[in-house]
Design goal:
alpha+beta; 4 domains; 703 residues; Ubiquitin-like (UB roll); 17-stranded antiparallel beta sheet; 31 strands; 4-stranded mixed beta sheet
Length: 703
């Protein structure tokens, strides 16, 4: 990498682009990446010759690239493939564009795999070995050399998972170029079943530069959960490795079986466990700024954690986030703050590993939070600003089974309203929410931080009220699915779909059927109904949802003068006093309340630009209805946009800009104004500089 502006040497040319023509079975971008001839890198994805040196063209390199492309095709099963030409298009100023022409030919396809040496093995093991081979080499699909090697490892893994620690597998392939078929042959030498031997642990000794105290061996052995004499299993070794990492006190864990060749007569396999401990106590100090379409706040971050609290690798953690809201400054209301609203979030967490059995964890997590309820604040002259003192406590058990995670817990939530300014309405009361919750996740992604392929499934279920007490009585669930498909080595297609259903049993009638009616009627009933939905209902919009809307931007809207400072301020000007004002405008006075049915669908294409910098183009849509079991697919709320990501050790920092396409908010209506005029509960989302868009900041991918 150079500095400043690069120059092109005399009698040489810079490569502007490399493209592949004729690629159909394989992505052209993947084929092009196999060539050593590469386009010149661009600074920030746009500027060639700035910061980075040019890639220089060489005809000799291009000739070798044609052979590389042919070899790549043959490795994917296309033995007749030919890179028939390398066309170089000269452009002005000593720049070239390179085009590689490919004739793919017919693929060589898999025949059913043949396995030898399986005689005498139990039928369930034979079936598992056959599945392992044919899952990676499905009959009728092109013969892939990488999958051929993976299938050999998978066949051996199917045996070692089931006790055959010393199993050997050889592979061969009979390729018929005339018939365009390939027969994969795996010769298995299973040996005989083995058992686990002694487990030796290394690396837990105290080191003042690394940790505070010695890691208790008894807790480690409980997490490993492998006893001498048990049947050997590579899956059990993987589970033990993950269980040790889940203790969150090691930076690295290696569980290595001792497998001499030839195997001992006893067929006993000792295990050697090597660990690298982290520090057990941490103090965290920091700060931050939140700036969005709801509020602006400045806050500090203070945290402390002891991962050997009272011994036994029990974990105790404190997180404290004091801050102040600069009211009413926000992204679409650049004004000097007229009032500082103190807020804080305090969370404690205690974790007991190995609760009841080796790999079940027990958690207790109390919280005390104080915050203003700024649903939407448009006017600094508000006569009342409502906040909440929130007490939350949760306790739960969780356990992982390979790629499956499950959790069973109970939560108690108390919301006590107060005012930062003005008097509290008599009809606002304390809300108590009590519910058990079940969470399940199934994760087949290749990477949790930067997934490129795989599927992720999740669901949660809550039952509030009933025998568990509290002011609310309802059922709530929200399943979700995510999928990832690599389009090229640096391009990924990601999609997410979710639905949510909330079935209230002692509230919700006003929100469902009377939300658009006179807001001054039956204030006590209205306040209880809306306040409950604010804390239990669904919302959409924001950096991990629909990025064309602010946080909570998609939801049924209604007028709640006792809660929203906007409404209180506008009531002073009589605009939101329905009884006394001729200028009453429900679209100005209404705010998001929450709903009972949600659906969301998002798709984005992620592509690497250079180094830690990447980008994404996305389309988000979804809706929240005030009625139960009411999936309104005509209400798309469709937004599209672009985003930039910069990778950091804690995940990518995201900036997304989403634009709401007006005819595609609700089908049959030209824009948001027409929708709001026809349905007062639809609301009128805020704009930035008069443009129907939103800006979303986040850490980590949107999904």
């Amino acid at each position: 990498m150079g500095s400043g502006c690069a120059s092109i040497p005399k009698h040489r040319s810079a490569v502007d682009s490399v493209s592949v023509r004729g690629a159909k079975a394989l992505p052209a971008s993947d084929v092009a990446e196999k060539a050593a001839t590469a386009p010149s890198p661009k600074f920030l994805g746009f500027f060639s010759g700035v910061v980075y040196d040019y890639e220089l063209f060489s005809r000799a390199t291009l000739q070798r690239d044609l052979a590389r492309v042919e070899r790549y095709y043959r490795a994917r099963g296309y033995y007749d493939a030919h890179a028939v030409a390398g066309l170089v298009l000269e452009t002005k100023d000593k720049h070239v564009r390179v085009e590689i022409e490919v004739d793919e030919g017919l693929p060589v396809v898999n025949l059913p795999s043949k396995l030898e040496g399986m005689a005498g093995l139990p039928q369930d093991i034979v079936d598992a070995v056959n599945r392992a081979a044919n899952d990676l080499l499905p009959p009728g699909e092109p013969f892939d050399e990488d999958n051929f090697e993976k299938a050999q490892n998978a066949v051996r893994r199917a045996l070692t998972d089931r006790g055959y620690a010393y199993a050997k597998v050889d592979r061969d392939a009979l390729v018929d170029l005339v018939k365009h078929t390939a027969q994969s042959i795996f010769t298995v030498t299973p040996d005989r079943p083995a058992t686990f031997g002694k487990v030796v642990i290394e690396g837990r000794a105290s080191n003042s530069a690394v940790m505070d105290v010695e890691i208790p061996e008894s807790v480690m052995r409980r997490a490993i959960d492998i006893d001498e004499g048990e049947p050997y299993s590579t899956k059990a070794i993987e589970d033990a490795t993950k269980a040790l990492l889940d203790l969150e006190v090691f930076s690295a864990v290696e569980v290595e079986p001792e497998l001499p060749d030839p195997p001992p007569a006893s067929h006993v396999v000792p295990l050697r466990v090597r660990v690298e401990p982290n520090r057990l106590r941490h103090l965290r100090l920091g700060g931050g700024l939140e700036f969005d379409q709801l509020k602006t706040d400045v806050h500090a971050l203070i945290g402390w954690e002891d991962k050997n609290f009272l011994g036994g690798l029990r974990s105790f953690r404190v997180d404290f986030k004091p801050g102040v809201v600069l009211y009413p400054l926000r992204l679409d209301n650049i004004v000097w703050p007229t009032r500082l609203l103190p807020e804080e979030r305090l969370r404690l967490q205690f974790k007991q590993p190995g609760f009841l059995e080796a790999r079940t964890n027990f958690y207790v997590q109390p919280e005390l939070n104080v915050f203003p309820m700024l649903v939407r604040s448009d006017d600094e002259t508000a006569s009342s600003i409502v906040g909440y003192t929130e007490l939350r406590t949760a306790t739960w058990l969780d356990r992982s089974y390979g790629k499956f995670y499950s959790s069973l817990g109970y939560a108690l939530q108390v919301e006590d309203p107060f005012t930062y300014k003005g008097a509290l309405a008599d009809y606002l009361s304390t809300l108590v929410i009590s519910y058990p919750e079940v969470i399940a996740r199934l994760d087949f992604r290749d990477d949790r931080v930067h997934p490129k392929k795989g599927v992720y499934l999740a669901a949660n279920f809550q039952y509030a009220g009933g025998p568990f007490g509290g002011n609310t009585d309802d059922w709530k669930t929200q399943p979700e699915v995510r999928g990832y498909v690599p389009l090229a080595s640096s391009v990924t297609l990601a999609t997410r779909a979710s639905v949510g259903f909330l079935f209230p049993r002692n509230y919700g009638d006003i929100v469902q059927y009377h939300l658009a009616e006179d807001p001054t009627s039956d204030l006590a009933a209205r306040s209880h109904d809306i306040q409950t939905v604010l804390f239990r209902g669904f919302f959409s919009g924001g950096p991990s949802s629909n990025r064309g809307y602010p946080i909570r931007g998609i939801a049924p809207h209604g007028i709640i003068p006792f809660l929203n400072p906007t409404t209180a301020a506008q009531q002073v000007a009589t605009r939101c006093d329905k009884l006394d004002s001729k200028d009453f405008d429900p679209n100005v006075c209404s705010v998001p309340i929450g709903g009972f049915t949600l659906w969301e669908l998002s798709t984005e294409v992620r592509f690497q630009i250079s180094g830690p910098l990447s980008a994404a183009a996305f389309v988000d849509m979804g809706d929240v209805s005030q009625h139960t079991a009411d999936l309104r697919f005509r209400r798309l709320h469709l937004s599209t946009g672009l985003g930039a990501r910069y990778d950091t050790p804690v995940g990518p920092i995201r900036l997304d800009l989403g634009y709401r396409i007006q005819p595609l908010q609700v089908l049959g209506y030209p824009d948001e104004g027409a929708v709001a005029a026809a349905d007062p509960t639809a609301g009128l989302p805020p704009k930035i500089f008069g443009i129907p868009m939103a800006i979303a900041f986040g850490i980590g991918e949107a999904y």
